[in-house]
Amino acid sequence: MRPPPAPSTRIFLLARSAPLAPEYAPAAHSGDGGYPAYYHRVWTVLSGLGYRVTTSNHFRDLYTQAQSIDLVFSLYNCAPFDNPEIFVASTCEFLHLPHIGAKPNIRALAEDKWLSKNFARAIGMPVTEGAIFARPQDMKTEPPFPGPYFIKSRFGAASEGVSEQSMQEDWAGAKRVAGALFERGASVLVEQYAEGLDVTVPVLGGATPILLGLVHPRSDRLGAIITEELKRDDPLGYELFDAGKKTMSFFDDAQKLWSAAGPMDYLRLDYRYDPKTGKRVFLEFNLCCHIGRSGAICLAASRWGLSQEDVLGHVIEYSLGRQARQVETRRWAL
């Protein structure tokens, strides 16, 4: 889908380090790595497509500017309160504001790695064994599967808290790493470590999901894992990946996920994949994934001759069409 020649849509772009009026210069925020430049580029592209784009780095502006917003595009994933990822989607529903992504309940499913793992298993997708732990004392009992283990936060975005220490051979090491996460206020998900490398499946929304291909995020870390540092600074980038005859298995999974949880505007399905055995295991799906020029979605789209402008224009127009009923409801509610 493409924007009309002179789109009238008023987009509200929300991000922690969004470029702000009047200069719209890339903003600086401690610990944000390359994200300020990414947000600035998204603003530049949306403005270049002709949309009227207002930017903000404050949630409260959703309330004060609701009357002048046609579509909320939030890239604000990390905020200083628990489970912030679904806040914007829920607020937009309360305000009858169309928003990029998916309904809040689907966003909540995606942000809970334990629920999404069990959801995926229920619809026939392969997953790793896992167990959740809310308190340090819960870890006195080992999970019903052997190591090696991979320890991460149950909730959260951008591989927060993931490092090479997340891989542990035994339960003593797993408890030590989990203890550091508990100190940060996190609930913990312990999974059976899956050999191989990370592979992701970028998808755009459509009458049927648009499956763009397979992408491998490069890693020079132990186990070829993607750490918080790599996700934040992205020094190694991504590359297109060919799984040969196994590719259709990934695409079948995406179709299953879409049938059960769609529609969604854009997303990524993340896996561990072992090229030696052809075994894949689903890890999570992401509804607010990187949609910059150097990210997995735009790289996969470029394979089909699509630019970042094409991708963002499609996402905006598909989302507006998907939520047309909500737009009409808003005329009467506000």
What characteristics describe this protein?
334 residues; alpha+beta; Rossmann fold; D-amino Acid Aminotransferase, Chain A, domain 1; Dna Ligase, domain 1; four-stranded antiparallel sheet; metal ion binding; ATP binding
What can you see in these coordinates?
- A four-stranded antiparallel β-sheet has the order 4-7-5-6, covered by helices on one side. Strands 9-8-12-13 form a four-stranded antiparallel β-sheet, sandwiched between helices. It has a three-stranded parallel β-sheet with strand order 2-1-3, with helices on one face.
- The chain is built from eleven helices and 13 strands.
- Helix content is 33%, strand content 19%.
- A hairpin with a 4-residue loop joins strand 12 (266-274) and strand 13.
- The model has no long low-confidence stretch (mean pLDDT 92).
- It is globular.
- The chain has 334 residues and is an alpha+beta fold.
- The protein folds into three domains: 10-101 and 316-333, Rossmann fold (3-Layer(aba) Sandwich); 111-126 and 195-287, D-amino Acid Aminotransferase, Chain A, domain 1, CATH 3.30.470.20; 130-192, Dna Ligase, domain 1.
